[in-house]
What does this fold into?
Amino acid sequence: MGRYFFSAVFLRVINKTKIFGTAFAAVAALGQADAAKSDAAGMAFFEKNIRPVLANNCYQCHSAEARNLKGELFLDSKQGMLNGGESGPVIVPGKPAESRLLQAIRRDGKLKMPPRNKLSGRVADNFAKWIRMGAPDPRVANGGNPVKSKIDLEAGRKFWSFIPPDTPDTPEVADNTWPRGEIDRFVLAKLEANNLSPVRDATRHELIRRTYFDLIGLPPSPGQVAAFLSDTSVNAFEKVVDELLRSPHFGEHWGRHWLDVARYSESNGMERNFTYPHAWRYRDYVIDSFNDDKSFRRFVREQVAGDLLGRDKREPTDEELVATGFLALGPKPLNQGNKVLFKLDVVDEQIDVTTRAFLGLTVSCARCHDHKFDPIPTRDYYAMAGIFRSTDALYGTVNGQGNRQASDLHAIAGNEADRVEKTRKHDNSLYRLNGRLLIMEEEMREYREKGSNATGNERTRMRTLTRDIRDARANIKSLEKKSPDADYAMGVRDGRIGDARVLVRGEIRNQGQTVKRGFPQVMDGVKAYPISNRSSGRLQLANWLTQPDNPLTSRVMANRIWHHLFGEGIVRTMDNFGATGERPTHPGLLDYLAVRFVEHDWSVKSMIREMVLSRTYQLSSDTTEANAAADPSNRFLWRMNHKRLGAEALRDAMLATSGRLDRQPAGGSVVTKLGNVNVGRAQRQLSQMQRNTSQRSVYLPILRNALPEMMRLFDTAEPSLIVGKRNETTVPTQALYLMNNPFVIGQAFNMAKRVMDTAEGRPDGIRLAYELAFARAATDDEVSRAHEFLNSVAEEKDRPGQWTVLCQALLASAEFRYID
Amino acid sequence: MDSALPGAAGQRGIPLYRLTSQQRLAKRGLAPDKNRTMNNWNNSTCGNHRYLLSRRDMLSGLSAGFGYMAFAGISTAQAAASTPLASRRPHFLPKAKRVIFCCMRGGPSHVDTFDYKPALARDEGKQLPKFRNRELMPSPWEFKQHGQGGLRISGLFPRLAEHADDLCLLNGMHSSVPAHPQSFLQLHTGSFQFVRPSMGAWVLYGLGTENQNLPGFISLCPPDNVGGAQNYGSAFLPAFYQGTKIGQFNQNIRTASLRNLDNQQVSGKLQRKQLNFVQSLNRDLLDRKKQSSQIEGVIESYELAFRMQSAVPELMEIGDESQATLENYGIGNRATENFGRQCLMARRFAEAGVRFIEVAHGNWDQHRNLNSALTRNCAATDQPLAALLRDLKERGLLDETLVVWGGEFGRTPHIKQNDGRDHNSTGFSFWMAGGGVKGGMTYGATDEHGVAAVENRMHFHDLHATILHLLGLDHEALTYKYAGRDFRLTDVHGNVAHDIIA
It folds into this structure.
């Protein structure tokens, strides 16, 4: 059984691209001299005799305005005619006999155009004459001309983020007692230089709640809090940190951070929103990678080129294939009929996600013109475009109404036990279907024999049978085609290899020079391997991205980690390290972290550990007036930022507090159960399937334009965008959700039950409720006020009702939603 | 404590039905802020590049955050002045303060409604060179001239035609793609290739809202397909600019409501007690933190939510409208009931200060049975639309409310099957009314058969530019920085149709 699951459609596409590719080469042979040949008379001839014919007979299918472009051929520009379509150039200036356009008009060959009405002999003679004249054509853009760029790369290389990080000297500080490690020295030096002093350290209560949420996205239980408080050993906190880093919930929380950047979603979004039933494998891959503390270098390499890492010496592993889902998950204009335009948009999306996620660079700005702010000329965009145009995205979806661009998927092996089970199931269903078909065919034969003697009932039955037999045959056919032991995953693989041409102003008809596949020139100091004409160049891209001297990859990731722990990045524009992004507040610290990251084999867990064990991380979130006046937005880190729980953590915390959290990994997705469908039609089914789920939020179905309500309201990442930093909004619709939504009320009820079951007497119950919700003890004042509150609702509510109302108030409070 | 809280008890007394509508709204705290009259705007901010302030930035400018202010009993209008949704000055003197967009999903046939094409009758049955095997079909409906401007409107819209002198027909519309999903998205967001904020979100971002007790952008019964939530989404704009959806497409609007407004578990009185308790917890935290715009934001959001909880259902409950008004909108008549209710709600939301309201009707995709389906659609919408214009006018709101009508494209003048027309994005009709637009005017034209726009052509980008302009916003200056560059609704396109502005 082959690795890949080829479909007829796919092979057809490959063939098309092959021919299209050769067309490029043929055009390159044509000089620009042809354009010069055209004189005024030639132009007049064209205007009088050629243009009207083309416009009236050809543009409908062969122009930018064509509803369905046929044969990838544009006849509405000079360049388009010279480029030709999928079967090669259509005119050879000066040589009517070799011009296929003329053959088609004269209906000499296989190709007859226009398809319905034959053009008159006079018209054909005009075309012959025109081609003989050298095909003068004023409809010319600057296609074929070299693309000029005004970008000064040398100056660009001097921009801070393109200079490779170098281990900076640890700065001197006045107060040598404060810092615990290098990070603290960098921070304190800045504070001292700005006459700021750090606030007090966080209390143990504050610290443990913060660390639990930051590392695993869940609150500590009262028992875990108590254990930490009573642990008097010097390394008590270190032990907690290490335990959390080992927790399987770590990957669920940090994996979700990466899924924001990877615009992870289980549907296409856009104008035709089809499900991606196999997307969840990528989600689980990400979670597992963070749990395994996979080297970030390998993590990047797998996502960009997992299918190629075996280098023809071995088959790619399932894990490597699933990783490439990163490049396939994006939104796509599936209703686009023109395959070339479609591919260009997919490629653009891949360039965007690759460069922003790993490099913090907005290379896709250079699709239509040189980057306006960063030293990225258009040709760099097309150098990368060549890599992705040589790559086929495998994202599935069903070909059907509204989807003209369905694709293949990776077939993966799955594990051995699954495979045996699946083979058995597959055989069984084939056996069963075949049996049913036989019986139905037999019955049908009987009715047929009766002919006109069949009764009315029998005729009705025959109609039903005809339909059922047809369906059964179709099912058997598709089942036979499917490999019994295959699982499927989204991803990419190499397709038709070739360099891309610059599209001037991004327009498909306006083709400029061919650009060799490669990487942004501004970073040509980074070691890069040559791209052979046998490979797309993704492997080389993966290597280039993860070279130790790549100035951006390590910095960008270190900054992302910092952002999630401290609430703000050292560079606050997470996905933009370019000129329009912000400058680092602590450039030395960022370089130190980037270098450390690479030295520790790109270990995310080590990086997190070092940051969390710094004294800076362990500051309280208190404010002092002097500091607030001098540095109101805490750019110099004189305190811990007051962070808010993300949508997932808020929901998970409610479930954990109520005791209802299902801590098991989901092992799949409900979207797989929905199958290949249009999301709009599956909403009701989906909400029914989701009604009582208490799994962690990372496992909720993430469908574009149909996010789970709570996720959408509380600012989860918009899955169509690359989100390094989520929005943080505070709006009444969130308050309404917390006040009235049945999920919140349900969790309050469960929490109330837990409190009533565990605690004896009201004061103890109140104390327990506060501990569960805030991981801290209630003050006496708080206990008495809660007591009063319970009394005040007693006239309307019985005991469980009173406790529910109180617990809901705690879940809805700001303290529950924020991390000190 | 209670009496100091806006929206709390103490608002009852005089029965609401004894008051005028403005008084009623004021009573409920629903009236728009009347201090900001049109005359207050001036040109001083014209062309200024405006940035979005973060909540934190704005609050840091105040000596005390609004959490304190609300509890000190200071009016919420003042407190609200610092929220991201606070009413903001446009770039220049606006003609309109708000928009009601009547979105006709499916692509209404322009040659049967607002674009009179006598040549179709002359050339009936003939084929155009570009469209072989398809015969031109004249409109089965008669066009008559209406109003002082002599607008030609088909017999499908008799009631609306009575308002001809308020209508500005835009007959030179065109868009990029003759496919529903793309064109519908482009109509709403300007783009069908990329995920971009919707028109309403941009407007809300530009102007804020006049009533803090209500969502600033409401989409009534929007379709789930053809781009779904993207059509009222905020994409990279902060989420508070996204549209609030009420009801499902083609759902009976009577049964629709804003989500999470109801709580069956507790009485209103008990919920207020519970909310007071939540707020006391929040204030404790604020005291401990000394200063936190985030927590102030939470405190404020609860008060707004509590007020919204009563404001929205009251606005959606139309029992206080007179019988005559209900009849005007066709409520009570099966054919017009649903869209009539939508239009009436749109008027109520407009009156209460909602910035952008979209109402939807469909399906207008008549590939076959043009005669019956188009007749039915027009019958369902004609009277409500006419009533909306009349009602707005009677209340003095039409001048400051821009009403826009149209769909994702128009239809071909020729037919493939009997009695059906196909998609046509090269030429079709919209109309506008009120909001500073000239009435009794036809702007733009298609060719003699209605295939393509040839005169005063208006793309969706131009439509967007014009709508923003009428609201006092320069479409080139209304930008938002995302992913390293400035984005705008009209991207690199858009021309304002100055000729239609009164």
Q: What stands out?
A: Confidence is low (pLDDT under 50) at residues 1-21, 33-82 of chain B. Residues 370-394 of chain B form the longest helix (25 residues). DSSP finds 14 helices and 18 strands in chain B. Residues 2-29+55-91+259-311 of chain B form one domain.
